[in-house]
Each structure stands twice: as C-alpha cells, then as structure tokens.
Amino acid sequence: MRILKQLWHWLDDITGISKSLGPILTHPVPRARKTRWLYVFGSATLAAFLVQVVTGIALSSAYVTSSGQAYHSLQFINSTTIGRIVRGIHYFGASAMIILIGLHTIRVYLMGSYKYPRQMNWLTGAGLLMFTLLMAFTGQLLRWDQIGFWTAVVAAEQAGRVPLIGNWLGHFILAGNTAGGATLSRFFSAHVFFIPALIFTFLSVHLYLVLFNGISEPPKAGRPVDPRTYRRWYHSLLESEGIPFWPYAAWRDLFFGTIVVLAIFTLAVVAGPPELGKPPDPTIVSASPRPDWYFMWYFALLSLIPKWTENWVILLGPLFFGLFLILVPILGGRGERSPLRRPWSILIIASVIVIIAHYWAEGIRAPWSPRLESPPLPASVVGVTSGPVADGARVFYEKGCEYCHTVSGYGGIRGPNLSDAGDRLTPAQMATRIFSGAENMPSYRGELTEEQLSSLLAFLSSRHLLQVPKPPVLKTPGK
Ligand code: HEC
Question: Given this model, what pLDDT does residue 286 score?
Fold first, then answer.
C-alpha cells in the first residue's frame, strides 16, 4: 500500500495529473433537477466509440484487405468464438453509437443547448454525427459480402448524380471504374485511418468546448439567452447552485455508460454478429440487397419514391440536412431555449421520427428487394433429385434467380412468380428474358454455359400450376 502511494506521488509529481485533471473533474456544473438523466447520451456515445476503437483494432489484426480474401478472413474470424464475439461487439457497438449520438443530438436540439456560447459545440458535434454515419457506411462495405459490395456500387451510383463533378466523385469513391480490390482498400483506409483521425480531432475540440463553455443549464421558458449577459449569469448560477461534476453528476454518466457497454457485450454474446451474406457476385448487378438496419429507412425511401424524384431526394436530402445542421446555431444562436417556446423544434423532430419509422417499417418488409437469404429449393419442390430438372433447380439457386423469383413459396418477390412458368412461357421466351434481362432483372448473357441454360429451361418448363398445393376452397354456407 505504501509503495503504491509513493508511486502515485512520484507519478503525480512528474506529470501534474492531479493539478491538471483535478479541477476538470470537480468543476461545477448546473444542478439539473428534473432533466439530469437527459445529459448522459453524449458520454455514452463516447463510451461506445471507445469500444469501437478497441474491437476495431482487434478486427483489423485478422482482416485481409484484398477483394479476394476479405470475405474469407471474415469467415475465419466468424469461425472462432472470440472472433464472433469481437465482431458482435463491433456491430452492436456501431448500432449503439448511432442510437446514442441520435438521442444526444435530439436532446441538444430540443433543449436549445446549441445557443450562445455553445455554437461551436454544436458544429463540432454535427461533424461527429456525419463522421459516425460515414463510419457505419464504410464499415458495412468492409464485410465484402453481397451487401458490402453493393454498398460501394450504390454509393458510387448516387455520387454519380451530382452535377458536374459526379463522374469524378463516383470514380473517386470506387478508386476506379468498377468496384474491386482498390475500392476495398480505399474504404478500409477511410474506415480505419482517415475518418477516425477526424473523429479524434473533432472529439478533442468538442470535449474541450464542453469544459470551456460549461454544461448548459436546463432551459426555462421565459429565460432567453442574451449573449451580452449570459456568461455572467451562468457563472452566478454555478456559484449559487452548482455542484462538482465529480462525483455528483459524473456518476450518472458512469452508470449509464456501463449499462450501455454491458448491453453491447450481452447482445454480442447472445445474438452474435450479423451473418455474412454470400460472397459478392457481380452478375446480379441490378439487385439492391437490404443494408444494415440504420440505413434501412433511407434505402426504403429511395425504393418507394417516384423515379423522377429520385435525383432530387439523393442530391437535396443530404444537402438540406447538412445546411440545417450548420444553420441551426448560426441563425438561432440566441433567444428562448425552452422547447415550449420553440414548438416548431418539437414539430421538426416529431416529423423526422415519424418519417424514419415509416420507411424503416417499409424497408423491413421490402417487397422490391431481392431475398439473398433464400435457401436452395428442397427436393419436394423440385420433384426429382437428378437429371436436367434437378440441375436446373441448382442453377436457379446458384445464379441468384431465386433472390428475385418465387418458386412454390421459396425465394424473393421482386420479379414475377415462376411457380407456373411452364404453363405461361415457352422455353424460347424464357431464354430471351434470361439473355436480355429487363429493367429490374440483370442480363445473364455470357454468364451461363450452354448446359446450365438448357437445364435451367428444363427446370422452368417443369413448373406447372398443379404442382403448387392450392389452399383449400372454403364453401360458403347457403350458396
Ligand atoms: C434482380 C432480380 C432478378 C434476378 C436476379 C432474376 N430475375 Fe428474372 N425477372 C426479374 C424481373 C423484375 C422480371 C420482370 C421483368 C419484366 O417483365 O419487366 C423478371 C422476369 C423473368 C422472366 C419472365 C417472367 C414472366 O412471367 O414473364 C423469367 C423467365 C425470368 N425472369 C427468369 C430468371 C432466371 C432464370 C433468372 C436467373 C438466371 C432470373 N430471372 C434472375 C428479376 C430478376
């Protein structure tokens, strides 16, 4: 014990820890009586971020940044218990970060905490929000399965719509003309070096500003912020009823942060990481697999709006969102902070939540989306276990036809149901469609061998309505 104490004195003497950190820990903060639990989301986001740093470093030590091997290195990580848990933590940590930074932003916005003198707190926070979303986006791509691969294609496709510099931007994102090894390296470097560096920088400024300006006091209707008097007033508030941050306010941050981390760990162990999709398959170029949950609503929005509005939404949506984030503290830097005196702020948050929830629910149903998780057709559906029809059923599964087409209840619903293809279409008609594709179906010209095509046609021609068990017809009494 004495040795530890001596060691601490020595360390403190040569580093000045207690002199520099002591005042920070015990600086006075406003006593927020009713809203004290609303102040914990920022520190909890930080806790989730630290979890991401640690698990991210661990994952990167086993991940291979090569388009040929990335997927296999993830399979390897997934095959070990510790790997599965670390991947799970990284996945649920990302989810937690997005939820918490969202809650933190909403809290700060509704309470008007971005007003004088905390405008730069808000602006650096807005940067952190953007970077967090970019991390989620680039991270999803690193899985380099179907979803990851198409993330890159979709990103480049959307960037390509930007006027004038669109082509250049798309090229920049893909690091070439097509998604491949160079794309993966580019996203890897963004995900592990570039964006984290920005996050650390912005985070330091953000935290410094939180200390410099002090934590905002709970808003009160009828007590507007006036830049000329605010600081003096705030200091007198702290003097009269401030409490030392440590331990009186900090324990809540610590408590909530611990719960968040424990929840992330528990989910990682119980639910495990997201399953890897199939390896990327460039032949289903028009397929749009469903992204991770946090982008699901945006994906559904883009899939459901009329085609002609797509360009506007893709270009103006992010632009307006960015402008909104920048203008909020600049145009609204003073005046009433209480949401009761800013009813439109409640309206804005409520409509954003309703819109996101609506499209999110649509995204989960996603009738337009290929079902990448469809299992191979069982023998009871195919009818035979060998011969051209059985071979054709295998091709139907392996070439991804089943992602979009249902056969006897198996498969996606993006394309027409093919359970009765043999009744409706001649082999020549089928072959034409398979070769030429359609707006929502990729062309398979050059993707199938002669043999695969003929067995595929044999299989499809063997699909007749009678094979499908019909639901029993209920007799209506009295008719
Ligand atoms: C990305 C989704 C998708 C994939 C993958 C896909 N299709 Fe299609 N398919 C469609 C859509 C959508 C249509 C309707 C096109 C139209 O008529 O405009 C269609 C139409 C068809 C038709 C004509 C159906 C009819 O009722 O007229 C056939 C046959 C067909 N596909 C077979 C295949 C085969 C075989 C494969 C695999 C080699 C395949 N499709 C892969 C989406 C897909």
Answer: 47
